[in-house]
Amino acid sequence: MKKITALVLAAAMTLALAACGGGNSSNAGTSSSGATSGASSTAGDYASLDPVVLTGADSTGKGAAGQLFGEMVAAKVDEITGGQLTIDYYPNGELGADADLLRQLQANDIQLFVGQTAPVVSFVPEVAVYDLPMVFAQYDGATIDKVLNGDSQFNTQMKSAFNAAGLELMGTLQNATYRLTTSNTELATLDDFKGLQIRTMENPNHMEFWEAIGAAPTPMAWNEVYFALQSGNLAAEENAADTIVGANLNEVQKYLSLTNHILYANMMIMNQEAWESLDPAYQEALAQAVSESLTEMSAQLAQIDEDNKADLESKGMIITEYGPEFYEEVLALPAVQELYQSIDASVNGLGATLQEELAAAAG
Q1: Is residue 305 within 8 Å of 141, Cβ to Cβ?
Q2: Is the pLDDT of residue 38 over 50?
Q3: Is the pTM value of this prediction over 0.90?
Q4: pLDDT tens-place string over residues 208-235
């Protein structure tokens, strides 16, 4: 098993992280009792427990926030427990694409998954609440975090939804950074989106949003996107800035439009059976590792996002920003309002809860 060293962790925080592989995997097992429980536990407190190895994975781009998050949690839990609880971590699709990884997670073939919200919808329908277009755009990261990870009705209901699917939601990483749009032509006004052939993930709500503003969404496997953009078979795509940099899309796209249509969030999810099989001391250690990683990573996400945008601009991309009136115009479209109603109905009113609690947290 490859150990993630302190050097790797430091490199992660400067975005110079080397991809780490994995090793022999093992399902989570039950540990012996007798350990001292609590957040203040030291590595020595875990010596009486049976060692446990969890397998974690993501399919993010190299150096993307999801990979950094997963590897930081692995490094921290190793340090906290003195190597008694370890995570064999496989980044960048080594064990499969998102849907493959989520199926493996439900089967407990892997125990931890890190990824964006869109692919999770097929496994936990309530996660479709994140598909509400531009719902987070007016809030800062701290306000959003209070609702997603804090003591909120939204978080309680979301965790229950994950439990119903046999999963445990460990935390959601974000800091008010978003998915953006790259294109061959300038998208200065809403009219410029009409007829735009844009690659999206295979998510019905995402596709319906683009249709609502007049674009022509085209789902496509990620490994085909660069060549489709290069050949002109596609005119645009949407992604987070770090993914755009990692894929060198500046080579085949001229404009970067800050549409901020979907929050760039990465969830860490665990198989519920694996979670419940852990000794309580290990549960606390893992929860502590996730909490510390969320704090440290979220503090840097805004800077990471700005650095990536600056990188793309230095490579020749032209950045288009929008004022509040652009978002107001989009949200006022009847088709977008209908999409809001449809999504809220599909998640049993969780969309309304999200909007209410965001507004309350901001106030």
Answers
A1: no
A2: no
A3: no
A4: 999 999 999 999 988 899 999 999 999 9
- The amino acid that residue 317 corresponds to is M
What is the per-residue pLDDT across 280-321, written as a single tens digit (0 to 9) for each? Answer: 999 999 999 999 999 999 988 988 899 999 999 999 999 999
Q: What one-character DSSP code corresponds to residue 18?
A: P
Q: What pLDDT score was predicted for residue 33?
A: 32
Q: What is the pLDDT of residue 41?
A: 59
How far is Cα 146 from Cα 143, in angstroms, rounded to an integer? 5
Closest CA to 248 of 97, 36, 6, 62: 62
SS3 (DSSP) at 88: strand
Q: How far apart are CA 37 and CA 288, in angstroms?
A: 12
Spatial CA neighbour of 177 closest among 265, 61, 247, 58? 265
Give the list of residues 6+ apart from residue 152 with CB closer than 8 angstroms, or none.
146, 357, 361
Closest CA to 69 of 280, 291, 247: 291
Tokens linked to 147: 């609702």
Residue 20: predicted pLDDT: 34
| 96 φ/ψ sector (left φ>0, alpha ψ -120 to 50, else beta) | left
Tokens of 242: 């770090």
Cβ neighbours of residue 211 under 8 Å, at least 6 residues apart? 217, 335
Domains of the chain and any CATH numbers: 6-122+156-173+266-301 (3.40.190.170), 179-262+306-362 (3.40.190.170)
Look at residue 288 in the predicted model and tell me its pLDDT.
98
And the tokens for 66? 């999801």
Question: Rounded to whole angstroms, how far apart are CA atoms 313 and 342?
Answer: 37
Residue 221, token pair as written in the block:
């496997």
